[in-house]
């Protein structure tokens, strides 16, 4: 790689990282689901193991998940405070996508300018601006594209071993790695249809990847498979909220999140690659795009993740478009414009994406400082045997800051009565009937209830509707309302 | 790699010892676990169904005579060694038969290895299963036909006739197998055809005279996919890795001579499986065969990445072993538990012989054999009607409704297992209605409850 290109790449990486870190630290706290992962990392630091038998979640349950991401962050948290590491490392990993996307784009086009532009797109793609999300996806996305890059360079022995290492890490990070395997399958199918013979090494690595992935998933999720059968794929998400995880497809939202220029250029490139130029590398990328679309449509992966993956593919395919465009311009009488083309393209892309990216970051759902303070207060002041009812998304906050048992959170696997529990938890927040509420408190052993600012916003209400002085003791005097439940239903003798 | 080849050659040379040793260890594990937990050694609803048939021995089920003899000599718990011996005998016979075939030693070894490690094999050879007897008889027939002596060949008539008493579907499969055998062999063609014809005749007589079932009796109900794959909670099931290998095996053998027989059997068995899940064991034999073809293919191929080859084959073997260990790990949860035996024994000693017991369908055969009582589901041949009435009883919301159903069917005892209780709502319905004056909890042990229903109180109230 030329020094000049390296310099530009480093600048791009630093710019991306700076933008992400500024936003990450400007927005207080983490997204709601991040607190589950924070708790796991904290436990690994203390005990060396993740929490697979969780006493706090749902009042006590078994958890099954892949822990590689948590171990990785736990390692860094020995050098940095956990909450700092949890903001820096994921954003560092996501910023590394610029380098990986550059490498893949260069492999596809052999064009430095096009590849730098692709890296720029991936650096400011709005859908990737979940800067405050401390989640497995922040490792998965760079790692899967690294694996793809290594797969494209299998002729080098070093890349073969690195691919195996990357894939091992992926298999231990998240089951969503199935996107890659599905992509390989579609790639095989498309190659068969195009009468293209794949390299033996590619076939062998694909087969190995499939076998290893399945084996690891069976090892970790044995109980989940036994308990839920084939239904485990849909993660036991209650019907009532499945729409949140798998919303209906909206073209406008997609255009905003993946940015209109990469989207349109991506369609153009797919058309050309499939029906005209038959670029082999582009075929693999297109297969991966199809894979993520199919899995998203089948509701096997969340819409947000599917779109993120798709967006990165589009950013790589943009390099093909730019490469074609610059070749085309060279052959026209406006060839003199070519030297300004990259600057113009970079500016246009940056302007079209930066505002959406910042907006996406600012729209992340994070708890307010007041809510966090309330949960911290709960952790310091409530007895250990307390059980706290909070909104579904606040369940992890109850466990992490509050260090108390929650009624429900968004880890639904291996929970038998998940739909009934979801309905009942909602009822606690919406029912006007005191007796019904107390019945539910008795049923789930709830000792305390919390009405946060988030709850006020979501429910357009300022408090629980059944609060009375006799049965509920207000414990926390700030904006957030924390009550101790004093009443119980008496059985008729 | 040459070391690995040496090991494989050694193992193939002594395959009889290794395979038998492995089968003994694997099949002993559930027995030892049951012994340690104080559970009955004989597991599975099907075992108790067959034992009950020996108690109800008559001209209509005369083919249970060998089992009846065995049950007179062997205590019920030790009957678990019958399928154990059938497994060992079947493996020995199969090794003897395939020794003279064109199949390579390694192929036979891996086929038998995968079969022994298969959860479906372990399930069928840990219980008194019709499948275990059927496979033994089928392999014995092939063994006898393939001997040199004419008189030994003629002896194959006896296992042949015995094999026709299971069900029409398996009889048809054996006829098909004999037809294929006669097609491929010149030496024994005539005898194979004669035997096929005899079997056909025997099957016809069984159908007309004994009203034989087309398919084997099913003892569990599971969704199709869950019932197929052991990792998803199948009662037996096939390893997911074996299924994956079988798919590769199908691709590898596509359009190759001889293998079309496997496709024919697979198609027939897959079609049959859609109607009857008990056929999964026979289907697993064909699937394992195809999986072995795939494994041999992968092992023999020169890979561009030899390290990946070794790693992949190792992971495949680990995956197959994982299914085995995972299945054995849940063998201790198989019914009947010690609590079932205790409670049903209590019922036998403390209730009238004509009492009718209401419980979940999975408990029928345990109730029949261990408690020596009739179960609700025994009453009606129409399974759909019985299922409907069962749902009506467990779903009853009003006391009057429940009582009238119990009276109609003359149910006097309700036998509640933890599984049944956990499927019912705690606050209303049957469980709540049991806490009324018509019902009395008379016995409880480790979560299993026996409730008496008394009509007398109801009549007093009516009067």
Question: What can you see in these coordinates?
Answer:
The complex is a heterodimer of chains A (493) and B (463). In chain A, 63% of the residues lie in helices and 5% in strands. Chain A has 493 residues and is mainly alpha-helical. Chain A folds into two domains: 321 residues, no CATH class; 117 residues, no CATH class. In chain A, the strands form two sheets. Chain A has a five-stranded mixed β-sheet. In chain A, helix 5 runs antiparallel to helix 6, helix 5 runs parallel beside helix 7 and helix 9 packs across helix 15. Chain A is elongated and about 85 Å long. The model of chain A has no long low-confidence stretch (mean pLDDT 89). Chain B has a five-stranded mixed β-sheet. The N and C termini of chain B lie far apart (88 Å). The mean pLDDT of chain B is 89. Chains A and B meet through helix 10 and helix 11 of A and helix 14 and helix 17 of B.
Q: Could you give a quick summary of the protein structure above?
A:
Chain A has helices at residues 3-26, 34-47, 68-76, 82-95, 97-109, 112-123, 137-152, 157-171, 178-193, 200-220, 222-228, 242-245, 251-258, 260-277, 280-297, 303-330, 338-362, 369-381, 395-400, 418-430, 434-444, 453-459, and strands at 53-54, 61-62, 387-389, 405-406, 448-451, 472-476, 481-485.
- SSE string of chain B, helices as H and strands as E: HHHHHHHHHHHHHHHHHHEHEHHEHHEEH
Distance between the termini of chain A: 84 Å
Oligomer: heterodimer
Radius of gyration of chain A: 25 Å
User: How many domain regions of chain A?
Assistant: 2
Q: Biggest β-sheet of chain A, characterized?
A: 5 strands, mixed
Helix content of chain A: 55-70%
Could you say which overall geometry of chain A the principal axes of the C-alpha atoms support?
elongated
Approximate shape of chain B: globular
Average pLDDT reading of chain A: 89
Please state how the strands of the largest beta sheet of chain A are arranged side by side.
Answer: 4-3-5-7-6
The total number of structural domains of chain B is 2
Going by helix content, strand content and strand pairing, the class of chain A is: mainly alpha
**Percent of residues in beta strands of chain B:** under 5%
């Amino acid at each position: 790689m030329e020094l000049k290109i390296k310099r530009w790449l480093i600048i791009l990486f630093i710019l991306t990282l700076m933008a992400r870190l500024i936003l990450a630290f400007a927005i207080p706290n983490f997204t709601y689901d991040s607190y589950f992962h924070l708790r796991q990392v904290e436990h690994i630091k203390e005990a060396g193991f993740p929490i697979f038998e969780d006493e706090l979640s749902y009042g006590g349950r078994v958890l099954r998940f892949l822990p590689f991401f948590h171990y990785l962050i736990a390692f860094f948290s020995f050098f940095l405070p956990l909450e700092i590491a949890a903001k820096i490392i994921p954003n560092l990993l996501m910023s590394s996508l610029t380098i990986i996307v550059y490498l893949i784009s260069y492999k596809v086009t052999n064009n430095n300018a096009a590849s730098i532009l692709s890296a720029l797109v991936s650096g400011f793609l709005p859908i990737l601006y979940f800067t405050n999300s401390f989640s497995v996806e922040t490792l998965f996305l760079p790692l899967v594209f690294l694996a793809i890059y290594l797969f494209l360079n299998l002729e080098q022995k070093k890349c073969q071993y690195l691919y195996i290492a990357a894939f091992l890490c992926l298999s231990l990070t998240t089951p969503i790695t199935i996107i890659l395997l599905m992509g390989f399958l579609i790639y095989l199918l498309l190659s068969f249809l195009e009468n293209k013979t794949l390299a033996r090494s590619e076939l062998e690595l694909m087969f190995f990847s499939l076998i290893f992935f399945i084996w690891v998933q069976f090892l970790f999720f044995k109980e989940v498979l036994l308990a839920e059968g084939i239904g485990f794929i849909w993660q036991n998400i209650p019907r009532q909220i499945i729409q949140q995880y798998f919303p209906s497809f909206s073209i406008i939202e997609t255009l905003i999140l993946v940015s209109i220029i990469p989207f349109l250029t991506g369609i153009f490139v797919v058309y050309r690659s499939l029906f005209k130029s038959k670029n082999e590398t582009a075929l693999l990328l297109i297969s991966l795009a199809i894979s993520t679309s199919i899995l998203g449509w089948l509701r096997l992966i969340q819409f947000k993740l599917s779109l993120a993956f798709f967006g990165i593919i589009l950013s790589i395919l943009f390099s093909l478009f730019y490469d074609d465009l610059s070749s085309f311009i060279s052959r026209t009488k406006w060839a003199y414009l070519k030297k300004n083309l990259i600057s113009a393209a970079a500016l246009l892309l940056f302007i079209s994406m930066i505002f959406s990216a910042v907006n996406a970051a600012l729209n992340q759902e994070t708890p307010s400082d007041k809510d966090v303070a309330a949960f911290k207060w709960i952790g310091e002041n409530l007895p250990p045997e307390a059980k706290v009812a909070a909104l579904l998304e606040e369940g992890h906050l109850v466990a992490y800051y509050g260090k108390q048992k929650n009624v429900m959170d968004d880890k639904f696997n291996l929970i038998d009565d998940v739909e009934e529990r979801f309905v009942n938890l909602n009822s606690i927040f919406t029912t006007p009937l005191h007796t019904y509420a107390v019945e539910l408190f008795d049923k789930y052993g709830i000792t305390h209830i919390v009405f946060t600012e988030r709850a006020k916003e979501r429910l357009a209400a300022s408090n629980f509707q059944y609060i009375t002085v006799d049965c509920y003791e207000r414990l926390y005097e700030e904006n957030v309302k924390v009550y101790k439940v004093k009443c119980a239903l008496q059985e008729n003798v | 790699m040459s070391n690995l080849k040496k090991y494989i050659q050694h193992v193939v040379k002594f395959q009889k010892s290794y395979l038998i040793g492995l089968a003994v260890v694997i099949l002993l594990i559930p027995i030892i676990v049951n012994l340690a937990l104080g559970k009955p050694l004989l597991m599975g609803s099907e075992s108790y169904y067959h034992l009950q048939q020996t108690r109800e021995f008559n001209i209509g089920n005369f083919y249970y005579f060998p089992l009846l003899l065995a049950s007179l000599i062997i205590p019920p718990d030790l009957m678990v060694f019958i399928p154990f011996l059938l497994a060992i005998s079947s493996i020995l016979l199969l090794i003897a038969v395939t020794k003279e075939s064109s199949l390579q030693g390694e192929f036979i070894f891996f086929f038998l290895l995968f079969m022994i490690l298969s959860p479906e094999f372990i399930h069928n050879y840990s219980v008194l299963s019709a499948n275990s007897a059927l496979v033994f008889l089928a392999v014995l027939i092939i063994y006898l036909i393939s001997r040199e002596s004419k008189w030994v060949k003629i002896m194959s008539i006896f296992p042949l006739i015995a094999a026709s008493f299971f069900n029409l579907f398996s009889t048809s499969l054996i006829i098909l197998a004999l037809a294929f055998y006669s097609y491929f062999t010149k030496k024994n063609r005539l005898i194979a055809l004669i035997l096929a014809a005899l079997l056909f005749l025997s099957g016809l007589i069984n159908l007309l005279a004994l009203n034989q079932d087309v398919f084997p009796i099913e003892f569990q109900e599971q969704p199709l996919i869950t019932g197929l794959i052991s990792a998803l909670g199948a009662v037996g099931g096939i390893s997911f890795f074996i299924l994956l290998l079988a798919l590769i095996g199908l691709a590898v053998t596509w359009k190759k001579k001889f293998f079309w027989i496997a496709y024919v059997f697979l198609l027939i068995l897959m079609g049959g499986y859609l109607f009857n899940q008990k056929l999964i064991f026979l289907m697993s034999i064909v699937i394992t065969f195809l999986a072995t073809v795939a494994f041999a293919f992968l092992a023999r191929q020169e890979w561009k990445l030899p390290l990946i080859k070794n790693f992949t084959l190792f992971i495949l073997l680990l995956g197959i072993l994982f299914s085995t260990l995972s299945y054995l790990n849940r063998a201790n949860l198989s019914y009947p538990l010690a609590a079932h035996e205790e409670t049903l024994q209590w019922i036998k000693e403390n209730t009238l012989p004509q009492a009718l017991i209401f419980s979940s369908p999975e408990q029928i055969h345990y109730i029949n054999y261990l408690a020596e009582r009739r179960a609700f589901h025994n009453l009606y041949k129409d399974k759909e009607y019985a299922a409907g009435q069962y749902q009506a009883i467990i779903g009853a919301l009003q006391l009057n409704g429940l009582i009238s159903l119990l009276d109609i069917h003359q149910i006097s005892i309700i036998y509640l297992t933890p599984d049944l209780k956990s499927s019912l709502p705690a606050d209303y319905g049957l469980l709540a209605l049991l806490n009324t004056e018509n019902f009395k909890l008379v016995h409880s042990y480790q979560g299993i409850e026996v409730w008496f229903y008394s009509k007398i109180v109801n009549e007093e109230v009516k009067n």
